[in-house]
Recover the amino acids of this structure.
């Protein structure tokens, strides 16, 4: 039976009749029942059911894509993917393929710290099991929302998790979003997932960009399945007529780790994990992570875990195909935005430690060759980052920073190296995670080099005028920390608030004088913990931002990365986020960097994962960090501009009244890829005390504004 749709009034009447009659129990093709009652062809993806197949056809930036799925319950689920380039007719680039998802399930320790809000959990050291999610085809559903179409298959079954398989097709977009959507009723479960596509390898090849930044290619039938280290988290299958690239959501797929090592996040070959017999390619996670703390993904009982991977089919192969993929992350680069500069914080690179160690070996030739041009400088520059704030001495030299006899040379070395490595493209700024006196973990930031000792010896005064190092602060209490910040016009904030070493903070000291000071900025945002049922990343800190605003404390959050080693081999972009400061220029190191601290203190910035930007956001003409006086009617106009790469999911306007947080969602399911939109809303801000905005795309990439205060 063939289903076709016309746009005439007569046929619309027939469709209503069919929807309320025959489709009430689903359409049966020569296979499983297919329910299309909530599908509208006006979504931009045309779906036809015929015989034992479903065929979806939609326009893309390349031309057109046609996906044909087999609903007979026999043979491969993906009968073919065809692509037409330009005005040409579609040509099959992949046939007889199956999506595949393997789950690795472990146990979360809910007694530690905050239960599900945990980082210090070594799930890898506890028993875990890996198993294939099997599709036992019982029914299919085709539905549409906005400019996207969902084709869902029931039922996916695994040992502990079960659910459905979903293909999401976006009108005007060349991506095929494949998700295993599963849940468990068992408590305290944490998971990893590995996904991809299997097919006959005969005559095909596998390609990827290696860590040498060159395209590599191998015969598809040449090996058993093994990890592959790649750039851009992408691996591709190349056929005689084109290729299909496979890659994960760029940030959502990566749970928090201390190190951004490239652990080989793709795979190819036959016999993957001894669970997938056929040849395939795909994405993977290393069960042992970075061999430090390995928390995996939260999977609370009853939550829908969305285990996603993107396929990008094209007539292109090799470098051209990868360029299509890289466009979705701007080439793993945080794009330039007029009137803004990119700022990133919280790096335990330990460059100063290495510098001192090398200098002790040989100081005769000035700066030792091993540290003369550290790799992290080019990594930051290539990622579009312009200002970097360190958090040094967190590891090997942490104890020395508490000893007034050893600490000053360390600080001097850090200041000198930051000055040497800063130039017109990159401003490298000294900073620390001192973790003394206040409670929890916190970050220090000054507008110029400041010499200070973390603990005050009995024979030392608060301020010492040192003959070699000038003014030195010996800090021995919370009050002295604040006094130093006041004298030096510095800032401090909670590192990873409400988790890790800051569990319970800053809540525990919200009534303290230093917290209420303008020198206490607020907290730092990172996607931690990770939960694949959530539509947003980093909700832990977003909740904190709303809470502090309702406390009446004008505080802000900035994005932090909180990793150690950064070099040309690391998977930096996936773990990173960035702050876009409203600055016209990058300060010169020698002049001090007070404008950077002022932008932070003023809330004149937004946080982004890089794919979604917020070049404009005002309410009543006021920008983030500013105060708007509400008129007698309580009305004000919100105006915002968004740009994005992946299709958008939603924006949200968040307000508070001092007690309750209110959220208003703006549906963006009508968007395609690589777009921009002006948002305009008249808000009722009666009795509200603050307002801010977020926006998130279909891969859970997002942008977060700071609040506008209301009076």
């Amino acid at each position: 039976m063939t289903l076709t749709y016309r746009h005439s009034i007569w046929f619309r009447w027939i469709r209503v009749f069919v929807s309320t009659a025959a489709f009430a129990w689903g359409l049966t093709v020569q296979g499983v029942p297919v329910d299309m009652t909530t599908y509208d062809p006006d979504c931009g993806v045309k779906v036809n059911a015929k015989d034992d197949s479903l065929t979806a056809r939609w326009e893309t930036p390349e031309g057109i894509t046609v996906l044909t799925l087999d609903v007979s319950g026999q043979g491969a689920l993906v009968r073919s993917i065809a692509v037409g380039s330009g005005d040409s007719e579609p040509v099959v680039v992949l046939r007889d393929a199956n999506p595949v998802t393997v789950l690795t399930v472990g146990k979360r320790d809910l007694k530690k710290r905050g239960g599900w809000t945990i980082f210090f959990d070594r799930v890898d050291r506890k028993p875990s099991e890996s198993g294939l999610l099997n599709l036992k085809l019982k029914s299919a559903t085709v539905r549409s929302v906005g400019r996207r179409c969902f084709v869902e298959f029931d039922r996916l079954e695994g040992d502990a998790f079960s659910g459905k398989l979903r293909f999401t097709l976006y009108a005007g977009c060349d991506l095929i979003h494949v998700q295993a959507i599963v849940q468990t009723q068992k408590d305290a479960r944490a998971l990893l997932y590995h996904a991809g596509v299997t097919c006959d390898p005969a005559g095909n090849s596998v390609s990827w960009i290696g860590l040498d930044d060159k395209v590599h290619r191998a015969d598809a039938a040449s090996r058993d399945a093994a990890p592959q280290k790649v750039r851009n988290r992408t691996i591709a299958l190349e056929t005689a007529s084109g290729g299909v690239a496979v890659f994960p959501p760029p940030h959502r797929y990566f749970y928090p780790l201390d190190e951004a090592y490239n652990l080989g996040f793709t795979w190819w070959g036959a016999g993957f994990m001894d669970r997938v017999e056929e040849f395939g390619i795909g994405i993977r996670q290393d069960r042992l992570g970075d061999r430090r703390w390995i928390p995996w993904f939260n999977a609370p009982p009853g939550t829908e875990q969305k285990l996603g991977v993107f396929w990008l089919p094209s007539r292109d192969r090799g470098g051209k195909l990868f360029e299509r993929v890289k466009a979705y992350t701007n080439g793993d680069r945080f794009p330039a935005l007029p009137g803004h500069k990119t700022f990133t914080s919280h790096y335990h690179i330990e460059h100063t430690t290495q510098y001192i160690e090398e200098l002790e070996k040989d100081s005769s030739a000035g700066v030792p060759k091993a540290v003369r041009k550290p790799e992290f400088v080019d990594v930051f520059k290539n990622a579009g980052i312009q200002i970097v704030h360190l958090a040094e001495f967190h590891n090997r030299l942490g104890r020395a920073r508490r000893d007034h006899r050893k600490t000053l040379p360390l600080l001097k070395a850090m200041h000198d190296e930051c000055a040497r490595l800063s130039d017109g493209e990159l401003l490298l700024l000294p900073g620390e995670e001192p973790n003394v006196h206040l409670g929890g973990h916190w970050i220090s930031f000054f507008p110029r080099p400041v010499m200070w000792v973390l603990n005050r010896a009995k024979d030392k005064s608060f301020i010492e005028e040192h003959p070699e190092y000038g003014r030195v602060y010996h800090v021995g209490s919370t009050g002295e920390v604040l006094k130093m910040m006041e004298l030096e016009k510095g800032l401090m904030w909670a590192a990873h608030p409400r988790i890790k070493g800051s569990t319970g903070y800053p809540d525990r000291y919200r009534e303290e004088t230093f917290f209420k000071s303008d020198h206490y900025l607020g907290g730092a945002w990172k996607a931690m913990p990770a939960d694949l049922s959530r539509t947003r990343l980093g909700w832990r800190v977003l909740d904190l931002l709303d809470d502090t605003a309702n406390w009446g404390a004008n505080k802000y959050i900035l994005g932090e990365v909180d990793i150690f080693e950064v070099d040309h081999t690391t998977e930096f972009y996936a773990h990173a986020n960035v702050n876009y400061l409203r600055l016209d220029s990058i300060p010169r190191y020698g002049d001090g960097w007070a404008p950077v601290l002022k932008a932070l203190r003023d809330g004149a910035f937004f946080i982004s994962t890089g794919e979604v930007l917020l070049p404009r956001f005002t309410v009543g003409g006021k920008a983030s960090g500013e105060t708007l006086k509400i008129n007698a009617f309580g009305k004000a106009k919100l105006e915002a501009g968004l740009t994005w790469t992946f299709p958008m999911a939603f924006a949200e306007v968040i307000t508070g009244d001092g007690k309750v947080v209110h959220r208003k969602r703006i549906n963006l399911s009508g968007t395609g890829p690589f777009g921009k939109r002006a948002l305009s809303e008249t808000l009722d801000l009666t009795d509200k005390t603050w307002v801010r905005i977020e926006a998130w795309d279909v891969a859970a990439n997002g942008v977060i504004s700071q609040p506008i205060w209301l009076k």
